[in-house]
Specification:
Elements (H helix, E strand, L loop, with lengths): L1 H16 L4 H24 L8 H22 L8 H32 L10 H23 L3 H15 L4 H5 L4 H13 L5 H59 L5
Helix pairs in contact: 1-3, 2-3, 2-9, 4-9, 5-6, 5-9, 6-9, 8-9
Keywords: Membrane, Transmembrane, Transmembrane helix
Length: about 260
């Protein structure tokens, strides 16, 4: 990656030494680099086509992204643009580049976090699985009441577990998920154990499992949701950059009077 930056710097230096209009040359190459970067998402949507390995595309994506940063700096001459179109374009590039750096971190940390849970879940199936866990928990408690006539576990469920199984987690959990709620509920279930009948204890063991599963589902929803939101934002910035960049190029050529260097 460092070699790509050095190569770009040497190329720009050569352009300036030859008295060529480096702003146009770097603009062409920079736009081409953004087109290539955007093509990576299309490559991921077409895995069956013989377009090369995804790992090779990812490596090329990283190298070109880093090199584009050097090109961008050279293109703007080290000064932030003052015009509306140029300033907007610079903001879009900076946002796309920064979101790419963030994505590099997220895509290397979140999958490792998800792998530590006992089961892996498909994001789109999580709402259905949550509903299933909620129904199972309610059924376990109702069956225990029917079997013994005791309501200790049912009262505990209504007071402490019903909301946990029914409600989505708070925003702060989505931003920074922890196992605090799971540990607290486990401790409370353990403390009530001495008041339970034997059938209720068996039901409580099942509730332990369901609390753990619900917590894992919430964790996956939060972490995968972050990845989904990042990808949506990164792709949106990239395509906006392509559109505004094309408009900027047309305007630059129009005022310049021709496409030659």
């Amino acid at each position: 990656m460092a070699g790509a930056v050095v190569g770009c710097a040497l190329w720009v230096t050569q352009l300036e030494a030859s008295l060529a209009r480096s702003a146009y040359a770097t603009g062409y190459v920079l736009y081409g680099a953004v087109v290539f970067l955007a093509a990576y998402q299309l490559r991921k949507k077409l895995p069956g086509l013989p377009l090369g390995k995804s790992r090779s595309w990812l490596q090329a994506h990283l190298v070109v992204a880093i090199a584009s940063g050097a090109l961008f700096y050279a293109h703007i001459g080290g000064r932030w643009p003052s015009g509306v179109v140029e300033g907007s374009l610079a903001l879009l590039y900076a946002g796309a580049f920064a979101s790419g750096v963030l994505g590099f971190y997220l895509t290397r940390t979140i999958p490792k976090q998800l792998a530590r849970t006992g089961e892996q879940f498909i994001f789109e199936q999580i709402p259905r699985l949550r509903s299933s866990v909620q129904r199972d928990a309610r059924t376990v408690v109702v069956d225990a009441v029917h079997a013994t006539g005791a309501t200790t576990l049912a009262d505990f469920y209504a007071d402490r577990l019903h909301g946990f199984f029914r409600r989505p987690r708070a925003l702060r959990y989505t931003l920074r998920p922890t196992t605090t709620a799971r540990r607290r509920l486990f401790n409370e279930l353990t403390s009530v154990d001495r008041f339970l009948t034997e059938p209720e204890r068996s039901a409580a063991e099942r509730l332990f499992q369901l609390v753990r599963r619900k917590d894992d589902l919430d964790f996956h929803a939060a972490r995968q949701g972050v990845l989904k939101a990042w990808l949506f934002g990164h792709i949106g910035l990239t395509w906006a950059l392509l559109v505004v960049g094309a408009a900027h190029g047309v305007m630059a050529l129009a005022f310049r009077g021709g496409p030659t260097l």
